[in-house]
Amino acid sequence: MTRKTNEIIAVALIVLSTIGTVIGVFAVEKFRRGRIYTVELIARQPKYGNWYPKKFTVPYGKETRILIRNIETVSHGFAIPDLNVAAKEIKAGEVVVVKFTPDKKGTFPFMCTVWCSDEHLHMTGEITVE
Amino acid sequence: MIEHRLHRLKIQITQIVVFVSCLLSLVSLGVAEDRFFEIRAKKFSYTPNIIKVNKGDVVKIRLISEDVYHGLFLDGYGINTLAYPGQEGAVKFVADKTGRFSFRCSHTCGEFHPYMIGYLYVSPNRLFPLGASGILVFAALSLALSFRKSGKAAKFKLFGLVPLDWRFELTRFKVVRNLFKNRWFPFIPIVINLFVFTIILLAGILGGWGAGNYNFGVMIVWILWWVLLMMFMVPVVGRLWCMVCPFPLIGEWMQRGKLIGVGRQKSWGLNKKWPNKWKNLWPLVILFWISTWFSGFFTVRPLATFMLLGTIIVLAIVISIVYEKRTFCITMCPVSGFMGLYSNFSLCAVRRKDPEVCQKHTLKTCFLGNEKGYGCPWMELPYEMNRNTYCGLCLECFKTCPYDNMGFFLRPFGQDLFAERRRTDDLYRRRGLDEAFKGLTMMGIFLSFFIAFQGPFGHLKDMARATTLGGYLAYLAESFLVDFIFIPGLLLLFAFLSKRMSRTKEVSLKTVFVNLSYALVPVGLAIWAGFSLGIILPNGSYLLHILSDPFALGWNLFGTANFPWTPVFTGIMPYLQVLTVMIGLLFALDLGYKLSLQTYKTVEESRRGWIPILVYLVIIHLFFLKLFCG
Amino acid sequence: MKKTLVILIIIALLLSFTALVYYAFRHARGIPVTAEKIERLTLEVPFIDREIDLSEGISKEPWDSIAPKEVKLMYQVMVLPWPKVVVPTVTVKAFHNGKDIYFYMSWKDDTEDRDLDVNKFSDACAIMFPLGKEVQPSTIMMGFIGRANIWQWKASQDKEYWLKEGPKVKAYADFHYPFEETELFPVSKTVPKSAVNDLVAIRVGTVTPKEVQGQVEGRGFWRDDHWHVVFKRAIEAIDPEVDTIFEFRKKRLSAFAVWNGAKGDRGGRKSISDWVELEVE
Predict the structure, then answer these.
(1) Touching check for B257 and chain A: CB below 8 Å?
(2) For a Cys-Cys bond, which of A72, B466, C10, C151 suits B472, CB 3.0-4.6 Å?
């Protein structure tokens, strides 16, 4: 192996392990999101932004998979009482998937079900089925 | 004759001490009762934070949460309960195990959740009197042994077994030597670490202000790497981390213009020289201490870890293109200070094999470099290097030496503490108060960290995480007073007593102070190992989660993403910690007396001067014992 | 030449790192969103020199002269079981005449459910007032660090008290935890002293009726798919330990809850409001 080849290999290794890793992570995640989940929800206390997105739409009759990420240091919960959908406690840093097929059309509230902060009662959003 | 009597007296005193402490530990107090405690949990402490019961008591605890979801897990008993506002938790158990047990929060409640701790004392506490008597016994033994006839022996032997100047060359094996001479080593391990650190930095950014215990960056750096560093890497191989550290890679690449091959010896950058009088541990003493101001943030917040590491990386690159070689590593990397000092104690070292060969070799390519490799980037002189403090195990000298005269040696613990003073030590003002203060501040930082983060005092935790500016400043002030005034002051006092008792006429107080501070090197390693146990045993299980889901995106790479929080071995943790303290004490006693012999001119002076230092070691070890189990 | 290049590189490094840190800070809690302001509703309790005798009805005026406040209600989802359908809002009014304080609640309900039977539950509504200085943040925990005084009006109890009509079924069925669909639990019947139960609670599961009942009166009528309920109590608290204290020109907190019996609401199955601030003039 010539010296030049060695250098090229070394540089390639460095680029791969740094920029390659970053790109790889984002690419994998984009692929995953596109294929697997309908909506990604971030759970946050109301004073830090509340649910994101606070309002979203899902199609009627098709299986919906909601990915909920808790990016905080307290637990949250998730429930759509009108559609009989709920997730167990989502601990800090955890990610859960909620699967259901909506059986009625309309706009329904969803909310956090675990005491997370003083404004916990305001941690609600809207899901629209059409 | 008098010495013999004194010797007998020492043995008698030891026997009495042992007898009395055994007696004390056997006295049990009281009859088993029903005890009830109402413990209120609020971010991030319990009220009451310390509860005391007797062995055999039936203990009921009602846990009430005052703000968010909290839990209570009792070390050693393994019982667990949860509570949130409106729903309380309850546990009931029989206190059949004695000692001190921490109870900790078992449900993530905020950023300081891993530090939310309280203490349960079940009397009688046998471990503390046992440990204390052990300390006194060892101290008495050390004193007795110091009166042996042999005195200032020609050769020091570690615990009287292994000569301190013994060494075994590991690079005599062709495989090892060829590996060290290959330019791809340690490059490949560095690239692997570069990959890991990329993930750490990415996880830090993506983690934001989320929970540290579920973040790859926080967990790998402060739980895995720190524990491995203190408990294995430094005591065994010394600066092993420096060998495989990815931080200087980019800077060095810019200096050299080549990654693998050997290019220009002189840095492409400005190649400035760091002033000689600061080429010692002083900058690192200050910088590491400053970085500990923020430990309440970067050990728990992913973004803070990212900022710390990112700052160090940027600094490394900037210093590399302004100054020569590994100036960053020697003068600015926060970890470099204690790694340098503590690696004097380690089992491994890079040294020249045959001094005659080096004497005949005038060109000194190990320092200047040649077409096979670079001149020592750490600006050491491999042909005469006799301590590990400033050797980063980069292995360039293996590549450049035309006579293959460098070797990687296995040797007994503590060998470098007795190394000869060199010209560069005086030129760069090394081996003086800088190293003494490094060891002393490490002890002080251990104290602050242990009491604040692994102790039950809520207001200290509030101060460390800056809930109020006043509290935070008080925390920094306390840190300064303890690290720079109180702990050095205590050693100074006993160094002064040692000098007085020795009745020496030539040795200066500063020499006594500095030389005897090296006895604290094994002590520092031991107490940090104990501290690390307190980190890894309760919280190690989080590592399984973050390996599967490093970015909290919902991945499950190894199937362990939902592994629950599982503290391990918390029952024997205090015993393990006491064990580390004892090991540290044994080394301190053995190496310390030898340091005393090396400091003073005559054996009699050394013996007399050793007594105050012995008392000092006993006092601090009793205090450490109390911290860990009392 | 070289020096400028080095300085440029350093500046570029610092700038990009700072930019990265700034970006990361902005997104440290997910995608940055302007935080919405959470307004707390204030219900004024004006002084009106009128008296209402509940035995005659709940009277239209003086209620017509007071502007109504719409209080949003939400599902109670902190503890199981949850309600099946939420009552979206309740209209609330209040006034006092120096001697007594009156509250009016009105909400939409398709059916009038006054009977208790197997699988049939009564409509109800309640007002909760936290007692004491330390008010815990959650309304749905029914008091926690401090205690709460709850006035619960039940349609079935209203029927019994005002119309003196006992339940048609021999066995008196109410609910108990754990919930069962079929509930038939004969208990000794007490004659209600009021249509309103005066309760004290310190957290979930500790609701306790006071020893002395009858201080709080209440009456409700169902008309045009809406319930209209009025509460009345003397403004002076008789036992400050367990009775709500109303102070003039001082704000105090209250919260409202509604049960829709037809949908199976009872106990924890209810629609609740957030804190509403009362201002007694």
Answers:
(1) no
(2) B466
